[in-house]
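Raw record, unedited: 2Fe-2S iron-sulfur cluster-binding protein
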Amino acid sequence: MDADITLLVDGTPRPLTVDTRTTLLDALRQRLGVTSPKKGCDHGQCGACTVLLDGRRVLSCLTLAVAHGGGTVVTADGLGRDGRPHPVQRAFLDRDAFQCGYCTPGQVCSAVGVLDEIAAGRPSAVTADVAGEPELDHDEVAERMSGNLCRCAAYANIVPAVLDAGRELAREEAW
């Protein structure tokens, strides 16, 4: 069975007809030509397909497109503003937080989601005081980013990049 939906992808309305079994990842890549999110494992285990859906990070390979018609999807390609890269993208470049680059779009989207979660006060498994505010520190970032795998093992630079971006975002209220 097919369904007509519209997704707002990186700021552009994108109408399409999808089979009701089509994942968001396949809708983006195969139907709309948006290749930033990658198909890694196709089982929700690697994080290469991570996008922001209605402001929250999701594994697009496990998300049905039809369930999110009218939703707002932001990929790594849609994060920058006014020709400037997002602070997370800038930090990944500054910290050399990638090697082959295959997982980088998912890592970047996940990092943006992680920083939003911490800023919103959502605790994680390593938050010391779940009733208090989580701290932007190595353990919080490493725990929250643990669903994003990197075959090249760029982790030593990814966590510091996310920490740098978090500190920059805290200073840049207008971002």
